[in-house]
Structure formats: structure tokens, C-alpha cells
Amino acid sequence: MEVKKRKKRKAFVDAAACVACGCCVKVCPLGAISVFRGIRAEIDQEKCVGCGKCAKECPASVIRVQEVGI
Amino acid sequence: MKKHWYDYLWILSLTYLVLGFFNILFAWLGLLCFFIPLLISVFRGTKGYCNRYCGRGQLFELLGGRLGLSRRKDIPGWMKSKGFRYGFLIFFFVMFFQMLWNTWLVFEGARDLRQVVTLLWTFKLPWNWAYHGTLFHDGVAQFAFGFYSVMLTSTVLGLVTMVLFKPRSWCVYCPMGTMTQLICKAKYKEK
To answer: Domain tally for chain A?
Structure first.
């Protein structure tokens, strides 16, 4: 039987444009996001499942969900 | 997700705006929204205020998010550019110092108290119903009128961008947010 391998999706932050408001932290259902020293949001790629809630919420729209190769 | 006590601070922000319609002297409480974020960033090096406690942000989240009063569109590129964010911070500072100057003039007796709330740095709204005299100097009231103008103006701007873009679009160009982020960056470089 052939197993279809789905590509994984992960969220990425444009760190330079991030305002560190923390909206993404609040909506992340997996607690995968933290604000690094009040400078930018950081996503724990291990925990992220690429649901896109953060990208939708981000008021600056600086989070993108992208497919990543395995 | 579990709600914390600080998830209800939007009630305080809303109360603050309402109180200003009854007694302008409550405007002084707004200084908390200036000092707490600054102190957190200076001493802890985080934007803990924005991230957790900002009642205004929560209010926009509630109105724009839960109540759906937002188009949820991307904010234009220029509005999230460093140039605009820093420019708006400087503009805000200039206006703030002008307000302090006006307060000082009243303290000095060089000018009479003006019972006016200035919206968007332009429109002078008569606000005399919210002032009933105090035991303090008129300058105390002048500062309250000026400070409430700052708070109301930024709320109105925040509401407009909430409707046009994402609920918390205000956070992108909020002068306090920009300032605390700059402090955090400077503190991180120090180490």
C-alpha cells in the first residue's frame, strides 16, 4: 500500500518587521510561539503544525505558513 | 485556552474611556498605560505589557475579533515600515510635549484653563460637562484634558485601523509599543 506523504507546513516570522505585540502567542493552540526579549516572535519549529492561526491574527501580517521539505 | 485575570483588563480600558465623559480628572489614571509598559521594558527587557496586560489591545481584539468589526485585511506595507512607526512615535512625542507645555502655561497662570478635548490633534470638542472644579490647581485639570485627548485620539485611530485592517492593527504603530520594542532592542544589545 502506498503511503501518501504530506508535506509539512510551518509558520515563519519576518523577524525584521515583527512588532513583538504577542498576538500570535495568544492564539497559538500549541504554545509554540514566544516573544524573544520584547524584540520579535519566535516559533518553535518542533511544536508548530502550521495551522496558520498566528498568520491570520498577526496585525502586521508578517507570519507566513510555508511547506517545508522533509 | 485558560483565561487569566489579565485577560479582563479591557474592562479597565473601557471604564477609563467612559469615566472621562463624567469627570476628566480620571484621565490621570491613563499615566499607568505609559509607565507600566516603560518600567517593564526597562527593568525586565520584555514587552510584557503588550503581550499580556494591554487592555486597549484586548478591547480591539474583542471588538474586531470576537464581534467581527474588522475587515481582517492586511495592513498596508508603509504602515508597518520602520519609517512610519518611528515617525509616528516622534510625532506623538512632539504632540505630547506640546500638551505638557500647555499644561505648564496654565500652572504658570499665563493661560486660562481650556475645558476642551482635542481629537486627532485638530478638532476641539467642548468638554465642560466633565469638569466640576477641584481643590487642586487648574493646571491639574488642564493636564487631564490634554492627556484624555491623547488617549481618545489614539483610541479613535485604533478603532479606524481595527475596522479597516486586522483587529489589533493599532499595535503595529502604537507609540508605546514602538518605544518599548526599541528599549528592549537596546537592552539586548547591551548584553
So the answer is: 1
